[in-house]
Amino acid sequence: MDWGLKNRLSRIIRSDGRTVMLAVDHGYFLGPTSGLEDAAKTIGPLLRHADALMPTRGVLRTSVDPQSDTPIVLRVSGGNSILSELSNEGITVSMEDAVRLNVAAVALSIYVGSPNEKKTLLNLTRLVDEGTRYGIPVLAVTAVGKDMVRDARYLALCCRMAAELGAHFVKTYYCEGFEKLVRTCPVPLVMAGGKKLPEFEALELTYNAIRRGAAGVDMGRNIFQSDDPVAMIQAVKAVVHQNAKPKDAFDLYQSLKQVKRVAKKTRVKGVTASREELNKH
Fold first, then answer.
1. d(CA 153, CA 69)
2. How far is CA 68 from CA 38, 74, 265, in A?
3. Considering 119, 171, 257, 265, which one is annotated as catalytic?
């Protein structure tokens, strides 16, 4: 890889070989996802805790602080929705616009085994060609259609195909036999967070993926739909970067959540006391 491409990728996957990405690109086909109705309000407190942020360009331009140092992995595929065939995607952002937005990487979905398999795979090859020209790495997301089975055989096929076609890193789901995916994919694998789970289960999922070779996680709903998103992302980072076990990470989550609750209660009491003091005068 060229120096610029290596440099951008190293900002996402840190010096320990791991990353905690925050996915906030759900709205491109799901609309106003729960927890992302006000994207700026959701992203703001979490941004400094993420190793990288994965938004669409609309959310990036309207809802992300341009003074942030957090690397951006920009979603550049779309054209589908939950009301239509999920695999019917095209490239929706030019590489020139990605450069203008100063992104660290671009991301698109591939749908292996879907009606539009060939189209999405050719989208990937085109994006890799353009990324190489501009020194921007490409993340291939192994998206799964409604009828696809998320097992090791299928996901290993998807991940290997993505790497063979030139993806610099791959996002995929956790499954039984995850070691096979890691072993047979020559580029870093980032685990997708998937559907919302109870906090302990999400931390356990993260731990299992890291222990079996994942380079990190790209979590969305398991962070921004948590009871305390800021505490949750810090707990996830403890697992990914500090090898914390699920119980220890969950204890961290609960303690951070409690500290926030006490601080909020103290502030409310302070405001009430101040008002009572003013009323005396």
1. 38
2. 18, 15, 30
3. 171
Reported as a single tens digit per residue, the pLDDT across 250-271 is 999 999 999 988 877 776 566 5
Domain ranges of the chain: 3-280
CB proximity list for 229: less than 8 A, separation 6 or greater: 35, 42, 45, 46, 223
Residue whose structure tokens are 């790495």: 137
Tens of pLDDT along 69-88? 999 999 999 999 989 988 99
- For the chain, how are helix, strand and coil distributed in percent, rounded to 5? 50, 15, 35
Phi, psi of 152 (to 5 degrees): -65, -35
| Assigned superfamily of 3-280 | Aldolase class I (3.20.20.70)
Verify whether residue 171 is a known catalytic residue.
Answer: yes
pTM, full prediction: 0.91
